[in-house]
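Anyone up for a design puzzle?
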């Protein structure tokens, strides 16, 4: 496995964003993971939708194509280290994003994201990030 998808990747995939669809199709056979944190964020979004049942089916179908990564001791250890480093530098990031980054770090994966603001700030902390434009 090589990549960990940020939550915005499946969201953009579902919305039909061409660049995201092309990149996912390109990397899916290299091994793609999804953090349980991202899955929770996806289900959160689904439950705010007007078409909950349809959206759940979309998410569940997508999830079958990736490996789900649990939040285990290695992930929470990386989370604790990363949060402490970020705090010392005065960098504020949402805890969910830091948990996703910690999942990537613990599993030696590249975060694949469409977010040009949050995850790229973590490159100086040993987190590998690839932004899809």
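Challenge accepted. My sequence:
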């Amino acid at each position: 496995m090589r990549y960990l998808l940020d939550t915005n990747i499946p969201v953009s995939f579902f919305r039909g964003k061409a660049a995201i669809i092309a990149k996912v199709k390109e990397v899916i056979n290299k091994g793609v993971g999804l953090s349980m944190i991202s899955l929770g964020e996806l289900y959160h979004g689904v439950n705010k939708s007007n078409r909950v049942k349809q959206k759940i089916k979309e998410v569940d179908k997508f999830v079958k194509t990736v490996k789900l990564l649990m939040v285990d001791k290695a992930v929470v250890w990386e989370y604790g280290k990363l949060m402490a480093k970020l705090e010392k530098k005065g960098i504020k990031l949402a805890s969910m994003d830091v948990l996703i980054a910690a999942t990537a770090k613990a599993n030696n994966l590249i975060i694949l994201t469409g977010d040009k603001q949050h995850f790229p700030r973590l490159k100086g902390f040993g987190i590998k990030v690839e932004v899809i434009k």
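A detail worth pointing out: Helices lie at 8-14, 18-27, 36-46, 52-63, 73-89, 95-106.
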